[in-house]
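User: Second chain of the day. Same drill as before.
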Amino acid sequence: MSGARTSMLLAALLALAGCGGDGNRPADVPAPAPAVEYTAEGVRRAGDGWRADSDGAELLLVPAGRRRLGDDAGRYDEQPMAEVELDAFFIDRHEVSNAQFARFLEATGYSPQGPWQRGFQAGEELLPVRFVTWFDAQAYARWAGRRLPTEAEWEAACGAARYPWGDEWHAVAVTDRALDAGPLAASSEGDRSAHGVLNLGGNVREWCGDWYDRYIYRDYAAQGLASNPRGPEDGAPPRPEVAAAGAVAGNERSTRKAVRGGAWFSPGPEFARRARRHAHNPHHYFNDVGFRCALSAREAP
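Assistant: Same format as last time:
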């Protein structure tokens, strides 16, 4: 056998054996892209998540990507299902607790609009804060260096299934309880989403950043692929179809803020759904409404 043919045969055998290059990966198969690491101002790595320096909250990452909002078989304000593009963001693993809210008030001297202490008796430091207005929740989020999640981010934190944990209903500890039983501790694992976020389906409902619009998903669907949607702009005029119907709520796009999730006493099969929407006057407070915070993420250098 000639020297040239011997060299060619040896090279072929080496390639088949995976010698040279990247271990056993064939030379014509590209190496997998390295995992993207994300960060944000005021957060640091802690275990399988991140920790906020301001209030010690545990944060989880929801990666960038396309997300489904709404439910074609859902209520009128959940239709049609729309696909949107979201940047990566962090979201609190737990709802904000009474203890965290108390530290915020002590640090800032802020005077809350809502009677939050009605949901804070001795020994209830770890329960989710309640009886807070949207403005109270927003003030806390700003102090903590974060913000309230958008409706799109809140749904993305649930994952793509019907419920935070999957498409099939099963009983969870944070819904279908007696009204006088009250919520569980914010850190209780009543339900866990695909991204590890706890109690999106129950415990307390949660304020979001968006103004409410019952037909906003129509707009998102019509855009084809809305990017980081945040609901109606501040001061948006009434939708013509709502005004024509003489809706008693008036201009909901400037009078009601979005609320998501279920409460401890909610009928779980309906209210724990990812797509279930609610809305309330941002100046009002409720026995079953609290909040959690979010934060835009950026790729680490």
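Residues 262 and 271 are 5 Å apart (CA to CA).

User: Great, on to the next one.
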